[in-house]
Design a protein that fits this description.
Layout (H helix, E strand, L loop, with lengths): L1 H14 L1 E5 L13 E6 L24 E5 L7 E8 L4 E5 L2 E4 L2 E2 L14 H4 L12 H9 L1 E2 L2 E3 L4 E5 L9 H4 L2 E2 L3 E11 L4 H6 L2 H14 L7 E2 L5
Antiparallel strand pairs: 1-2, 2-12, 3-4, 3-12, 4-10, 5-6, 5-9, 6-7, 8-9, 10-11, 12-13
């Protein structure tokens, strides 16, 4: 009986849902460093002829928060918000996203740095080409038209909600559709810890948990739903 339960648990966590921890501040405003999430892996799965009528499959939409394999290192799992889907024209003017000629209203976005950065804030103007990875240079070379980035088929343009402090598609390019794992559904636990503890679960983290579990757990975030704009 225990073996069957173990197999069911492994199957569920690998194909239906998966835990994930937010290790950095790039999504703050929506998700905090130390948030532990449950990720729905079925949301964007390709529907079969029978299951498409039984399970809530959907396309990746503008505004969705997604969990994906980082294109420059697929061993890393990242989380960002989809700003552009295939065919969209994207640019930033004075930190405001312009998509297909319309300025977006993004109440979930925060700006934390007062200093102006031409490439970050008026993207894609003044690109620091020599500082970008090859994927970022390729995006600027092949997907820019009239000062805007055009999202190609099978790709998505993703950015962090902590817009000034986010390593995102502005720098390394698009998220391939096949890299998208799923969408976060709920914060099941949130703990105030530094990035290095959250990425490696060090001895320091174990000691910290033993001494501060109750005081550093953000109880008000427990079972907090991750909502996407409608």
């Amino acid at each position: 009986e225990w073996a069957v339960n173990f197999i069911i648990l492994i199957f569920a966590t690998s194909t239906v849902a998966q835990p994930f921890v937010i290790p950095t501040a790039s999504m703050e405003g929506t998700l905090m460093t130390g948030d532990h999430l449950i990720v729905d892996k079925l949301a964007y799965a390709p529907p079969g002829p029978l299951t498409k009528n039984l399970l809530p499959y959907e396309d990746v939409k503008r505004g969705d928060v997604i969990v994906f394999r980082y294109p420059l290192d697929i061993s890393q799992t990242w989380v960002k918000r989809v700003v552009g889907v295939p065919g969209d024209h994207i640019r930033l003017e004075n930190r405001q996203v312009i998509r297909n000629g319309q300025q977006l209203t993004e109440p979930y976005v925060q700006h934390v740095f007062p200093n102006y950065n031409a490439y970050r804030d008026d993207f894609p103007s003044s690109p620091p080409v020599s500082l970008l990875p090859q994927s970022g240079r390729d995006m600027l070379a092949h997907n820019m038209q009239a000062g805007e980035i055009v999202v190609p088929p099978g790709r998505y343009f993703a950015m962090g909600d902590n817009r000034d402090n986010s390593d995102d598609s502005r720098y390394w390019g698009f998220v391939p559709r096949e890299n998208i794992i799923g969408k976060p559904v709920i914060v099941f636990w949130s703990y105030d810890a530094p990035t290095e503890d959250l990425t490696g679960y060090t001895i320091h983290h174990a000691v910290d948990l033993a001494g501060h579990f109750f005081t550093r757990t953000r109880w008000q975030r427990t079972l907090k739903l991750v909502r996407n704009p409608t």
